Amino acid sequence: MKTYDLYSLKCVKCGTIADEAKAYTNCARCKSPLEVIMNYDLLKERLNESMLRTAPIKATKYIDFYPIRNKNGIVTLHEGGTPLYRCKNLGKKLGLNNLYVKNEGANPTGAFKDRGTMVEITKALELGKKAVVAASSGNMAASVSAYCANANLPAYILVPQGTPVGKLSQTLAYGARIIQVRSSYDDAARLTKKISEKHNFYLAGDYAYRREGQKSQAYEIIEQMNWEVPDKVIVPIGCGTNGSAIWKGFKEYKM
Questions:
Q1: Each residue's pLDDT tens digit in the chain (255 positions)?
Q2: Where do the domains of the chain lie?
Q3: For the chain, how big is the Rg over CA atoms in Å?
Q4: SS3 4
Q5: Model confidence pTM above 0.90
Q6: Cα angle vertex 205, ends 5, 19, to 5°?
Q7: How far apart are the C-alpha atoms of 218 and 220, rounded to whole Å?
Q8: Are strands 177-181 and 155-160 parallel, antiparallel or unpaired?
């Protein structure tokens, strides 16, 4: 990483530094996932600590911590700033004096995915992509579609054939084009990658840039708990992107 670069993309396996204009999901050499490595020395020089401690809580407040080059071009629906509730009665039943629940359903499309989508669709514009493609029939599909609508980018969502229409209603409402694939979700995901490479579409999904946006949950929790890091955090796990994002957010705070 050059001293003036705020971040780089690095392969988690072989350590190759990727050119984000050519690869931003997987390593071109060994096909392993890429991760964002922030230049924390440069970040500390640029950071406005006074603003961080006084500005209202929302995801865009932490823009310096994201791999975004053009801060004026951020695509946002005012995600983040979700409430943290102290659950006294439930905590009492479980023997926990300080049990809190963060309501990520208060995000624009009703899911934590919006935090990562904010970064992904911003990157899609930065990288000059002419459309966005993703494989999803749930929260991610709705989130990607909403942010693409805000950015005036066409969204193509691939789903396995037979996906209930009810699951796609929110995605359809945002104007995305839904393509049914006569196979499994895994096949739909593989097809999105081929489409993105052939047509210069941005491939949205559980990749490095999404993780960076979702780590803002950790920043908010720390701030909402009077700048204290909680002892433990319980996170639902699918493929693990959200859990690792929150872990990274806590780790960065301690640096």
A1: 554 589 999 999 999 999 999 999 999 999 999 999 999 999 999 888 888 889 999 999 999 999 999 989 999 999 999 999 999 999 999 999 999 999 999 999 999 999 999 999 999 999 999 999 999 988 999 999 999 999 999 999 999 888 888 889 999 999 999 999 998 889 999 999 999 999 999 999 999 999 999 999 999 999 999 999 999 999 988 889 999 999 999 999 887
A2: 1-46, 129-205
A3: 19
A4: coil
A5: yes
A6: 30
A7: 5
A8: parallel
Strand partners for 86 = 100
Contacts of 21 (CB under 8 A, 6+ apart): 127
* 53, amino acid identity: R
User: What are 26's two structure tokens?
Assistant: 């997987």
Architecture label for domain 129-205: 3-Layer(aba) Sandwich (3.40)
- The identity of residue 10, as a single letter, is K
